[in-house]
């Protein structure tokens, strides 16, 4: 019953990406037994974490579902393949990761890094969450977001609709709204 006819047809991957940054709070949040068990309860079978410059190493154990797989790596020349394979993406609030995931039509939870001082990224994520293109969380609310998420309620992002995003960017740069 998998999305595409492969050898492991029921493999459902959660891909977690922090981009090139260090976002240990996100990796740590995904690594909690609560979050892992909630993802496995929802039918996801694998968690792949791209941990960037982070120093926190995820544990591969402490999950109720022994057949579940958690893997991690630091960097990849391209995360496109991981995004394509994913059934769910949990990402930092980098605009590149956000738009690449939305373009592929993947359900997305954006986790905002509250340690960043100049956090325009969170405004972008919150704006897109308001439009129901993605879900927005903080590291400490990730569990609730996953527990209550309904990916079917997400609205596909139409790349042609750049005006709201352009307005948002203009506002960040200090230009008045037309």
From TrEMBL:
Domain Glycosyl transferase family 28 C-terminal: 13-170
Gene3D superfamilies in UniProt: Glycogen Phosphorylase B
InterPro entries assigned: Glyco_trans_28_C, UDP-GlcNAc_transferase
Cellular component GO terms, alphabetical: UDP-N-acetylglucosamine transferase complex
Alphabetized Pfam families for the sequence: Glyco_tran_28_C
Annotated GO biological process: dolichol-linked oligosaccharide biosynthetic process
Gene Ontology MF terms: hexosyltransferase activity
Protein name (database record): Glycosyl transferase family 28 C-terminal domain-containing protein
């Amino acid at each position: 019953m998998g999305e595409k006819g492969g050898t492991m047809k029921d493999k459902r991957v959660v891909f977690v990406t922090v981009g090139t940054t260090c976002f240990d709070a996100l990796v740590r949040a995904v690594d909690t037994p609560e979050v892992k068990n909630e993802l496995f309860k929802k039918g996801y079978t694998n968690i792949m974490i791209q941990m960037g410059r982070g120093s926190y190493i995820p544990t591969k154990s402490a999950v109720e579902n022994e057949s579940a797989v958690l893997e991690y790596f630091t960097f990849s020349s391209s995360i496109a393949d991981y995004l394509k394979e994913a059934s769910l993406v949990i990402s930092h609030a980098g605009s590149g990761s956000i738009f690449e995931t939305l373009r592929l039509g993947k359900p997305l939870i954006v986790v905002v890094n509250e340690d960043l001082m100049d956090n325009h990224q969170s405004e972008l994520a919150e704006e897109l969450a308001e439009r129901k293109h993605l879900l927005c969380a903080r590291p400490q609310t990730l569990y609730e977001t996953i527990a209550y998420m309904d990916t079917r309620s997400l609205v596909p992002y139409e790349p042609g609709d750049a005006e709201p995003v352009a307005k948002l960017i203009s506002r960040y740069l200090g230009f008045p709204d037309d």
